[in-house]
Design brief:
Sodium/glucose cotransporter, 79% helix, mainly alpha
Length: 502
């Protein structure tokens, strides 16, 4: 049995299981609430692993190790720290209040619907603006998942880049359109488990094969020095040197990745779908353990991959370091199963994002503006069409073979964190937040992300999520203070929500 045949068998078995779960979950979708939130009846283990698997995406097993491969542990380490802290704080601060508040304010099942109900926005303008930003940044994020799938298929099977894109698109679409939230949560649970096992086993194996911690890091440092001396070519030398010059601004840019968790729709929606607030603590503990281990192992494999691989990867191929290491360590079939973890990472995020994007459009645009008396069946149909359209646009964005997984994720991450994050926090914790304040903050935050991302040099080298988060929050706060149109009913409902028991 050749290695290629072993890889194919492993991938077919895995992908077949994902589609099968989608078919089984399809039978349980009797309403929009079932399709979008699983009827708010998902247990703590599934919630935790689903949230983290959907959050990390292909960049965990490709983008982050690739970053560590090119520059050592500096940038990758500080980014991992920021993400771990952000994960913990979002579970600690946002999870219970968001679930409680979305139920109290009209049993909202999407973030745009929650904003509409929370701020008594009869015009639905705030929901429409939120949906626009959701669709924009989700499309970019889904494109990163498709790029990850394609790079995996290219590195493992030698497939042409665009063929890999098509395969990834078909599989992700199939079970997302069929199964909805339950299918996404169940597949993400399996994918999250596979991801953590692959990371732990590979991290331990590569460290042991290099002679233990000390010798392994000595060899990795030697690789970096050789790269800086130009041994692997001028292009590689520049890339490594660029990552070595790591000052305070760079550390801040890495740490503020954690702000994204407060506004990541496909992540925080898991808080809304959990079975009860009493189970949030269990999920939080599971989630933070998963995240710390996963991030640490990903950085470790990327760093030590420099010393472990006999051939130096190219700049564009650096994001395949994890798959290259696994193929060298394990027997073909076992490597194939573990390589499915990379596919799992990309798929688990893309499916969640497609589902949230479709729910936002069907509930908060189609039903609110186009057909207010749309039936449950019609909403489900529109949502499935939206999944297809967003995926198609993301496919077009991912056609460029030079696309960076980490770069695409970084842009989309800033978009969500800088627009939705501050408004979520203000909506949950400040009764004085008004509809006009929230709307102004959303727009200013979104525009800041887009402009800052496309400007370079000096202050603009700072990661755009930080200025966008600050501007969004400050504008929303100031406009709310100046806004004299305080809705008495809204204030009364907020006070009632705050008094509810967990």
């Amino acid at each position: 049995m050749t290695s290629t045949i072993s890889f194919i068998i492993a991938f077919v078995l895995y992908l077949g299981l994902m589609v099968f779960i989608g078919l089984r979950a399809m039978k349980k979708n009797n309403s929009a609430s079932d399709f979008f939130l699983g009827g708010r009846n998902v247990g703590p283990w599934t919630t935790a692993l689903s949230a983290e698997a959907s959050d990390m995406s292909g960049w965990l097993l490709m983008g982050l190790p690739g970053l560590a491969y090119l520059g050592g542990m500096k940038e990758a380490f500080w980014t991992a720290v920021g993400l771990a802290v952000g994960t913990y704080l979002s579970w600690l601060i946002v999870a219970k209040p968001l679930r409680k508040c979305t139920i109290a304010f009209g049993n909202s099942i999407t973030i745009p619907e929650f904003f509409t109900n929370r701020f008594k926005d009869k015009s639905h303008i705030i929901a429409a603006i939120t949906v626009i930003f959701n669709l924009l940044f989700f499309t970019i994020y889904v494109a990163s998942g498709l790029v990850a799938c394609s790079k995996l298929f290219t590195s493992v099977f030698g497939l042409e880049y665009h063929v890999g894109l098509v395969i990834g698109l078909i599989v992700i679409l199939s079970y997302t359109i069929m199964g909805g939230y339950l299918a996404v949560c169940k597949t993400d649970f399996i994918q999250g488990t596979l991801m953590i096992i692959a990371l732990i086993v590979t991290g331990i194996a590569v460290t042991a094969l290099l002679g233990g911690w000390g010798p392994a890091f000595d060899k990795a440092n030697a690789f970096t020095q050789n790269a800086l001396n130009g041994k692997f070519g001028e292009e590689f030398q520049k890339a490594v040197a660029g990552n070595q010059s790591y000052g305070a601004s760079s550390i801040i840019s890495a740490l503020v990745w954690g702000l994204g968790y407060f506004g990541m729709p496909h992540f925080i929606i898991r808080f809304m779908g959990i079975r009860s607030n009493r189970e949030v603590k269990i999920s939080r503990r599971i989630a933070i353990v998963w995240v710390v281990i996963a991030l640490g192992a990903a950085v470790l494999v990327g760093t030590l991959g420099t010393a472990f691989l006999t051939e130096t990867l190219s700049i564009s191929g650096a994001e395949t370091v994890f798959s290259a290491v696994m193929q060298k360590i394990f027997p073909s079939f076992i490597a194939g199963i573990f390589l499915c973890a990379i596919l799992a990472a990309a798929m688990s995020t893309a499916d969640s994002q497609l589902l949230v994007a479709s729910s936002s459009f069907s509930q908060d645009v189609y039903k609110a503006f186009i057909k207010k008396n749309a039936s449950e069946k019609e909403i489900l149909k529109v949502s499935r069409i939206t999944v297809f359209v967003v995926a198609a646009v993301a496919f077009c964005l991912s056609l460029d073979q030079s696309s960076s997984i980490f770069g695409l994720v970084s842009y989309a991450w800033a978009g969500f964190g800088g627009t939705l994050g501050p408004i979520i926090l203000l909506a949950l914790f400040w009764r004085g937040t008004t509809r006009n304040g929230a709307l102004a903050g959303l727009i200013c935050g979104g525009v800041t992300v887009i402009l800052w991302h496309n400007l370079h040099g000096g202050l603009f080298n700072l990661y755009e999520i930080l200025p966008a988060f600050i501007i969004c929050g400050v504008v929303a706060f100031v406009v709310s203070l100046l806004d004299k149109n305080k809705d008495a009913e809204m204030l009364a409902e907020f006070d009632k929500y705050r008094k509810l028991e967990d």
